[in-house]
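Notes to self after the call with IL:
- keep both proteins in one doc
- input above output, always
- annotate only the second one for now

Protein 1:
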Amino acid sequence: MFKFEKDLSEIKIILWLFWHPHLWGECFIPINRDANLESEKVVFLAYFYALKIEMREKEIEKEKEREKEKERLEKKSKVILKRIVKRRKELGLTQWDLGALLNLTSSGFYKVETGKTKLDTTRLLEILEKLEISPEEFFKGFK
């Protein structure tokens, strides 16, 4: 993104920056690469801009990692929900039947079963109890 060119008496800097108000703010004025500025100011500005770019790139990378982790957990969650549906159907229960056993409305249980309502540990254990399956058996082979 930037490149230093050093002479004996001065440091010239060439910055190839794309102006992004969210990175640099509205007050950003590109450095005139032909201007004779004091070397300390030039070095400071170059360092500041490089740091700003590096920080933003790290933030973007962390955000991508968080998204990947979220997707990975959502996939696992779907596997758990599919196992609940499979077991419910094996027992010949409808969503309404299981919802009634759990003191939920049929639409309330539908939301749990489809993942629209997050399933906490207590509710999961309650569902497994009503489905007559132990947690060990339910999670057998789960990765």
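Protein 2 (the one to annotate):
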Amino acid sequence: MKKFLVPLMSILLVMACSQQPTNPEPPTGPVVITPDPNPVPVPQNPGTWWKPGPIKKFQIIHASDMDEVREKVKKDTQVLTFELDSLVEDFEGTEVADYVHSLGAKLICYTSEGYQKSHHDEAQYPEDAKGGNICRKEIFGKCVSWWPGEKWGNPKKESLKKFLHGRFKKAKELGCDGVEPDNMDQHSNDVGFSITEEENIQAQKEIAALAHKEGLAIFQKNAGDIAEHLVDHFDGVYNESCFEYDECDDLAPYKNKLTAIMTYSKKCKVVPENPNAACNYSNDGYFED
């Protein structure tokens, strides 16, 4: 056995010398990191959200309790639009969303990029983003407001984007599947601040990304003249009165996405440029049928 003793001791000595110390000293020279030859690209919006195609039936309702919700929501509706502020003020948690989802429908929460008096978060609306009163000169020839206490919001302001992001988070918390921010056509109205079409397009893209970040779909509201620039960033479009103003052809870019048309004075008809558009007629501002 003695003849194997020396080789064995040599092997043990080599093994001992090759062991790393328990607490090695940090290297004193520069650390060289070899880049991954096949890096995985980071997606622009890593979350997932509802991406609807065309629909046939949508409703927009106002309700102050669940009995009214159950009474008004049609069993065959595919999409229900409900005011986010009402969800916060009048209902408990996700009860409206839970009911809508039990019908196999989706819930879109209406909000506004502008300031809204008497809303639950009016005190948090950023002062530096407030513009002039929301009104419609094209109807009256002068600024006559149909919405007392509402002001345009300046989407270029980072403070407004942060505020809207907070609303999107609240919408997600309450079970909304998407959001519909109104009054996003600042570039084509007398809003009380300077904004070009290009600036508004860029700002709206950034606002859409915030909704997607929270896992929400987001829908363009009116502003059909910039639809072709926003269609790749928004998940559908809501339009008011395109029949009345002969603007329905503006909706063509959204022909493969959710398109909801609201008309107040003319009956619904097929839009050749967007034949899959859903339409609802109302004379009272709500589209409950």
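Annotation: Helices lie at 5-18, 66-72, 84-90, 95-102, 137-140, 158-173, 197-213, 227-230. The radius of gyration is 28 Å.
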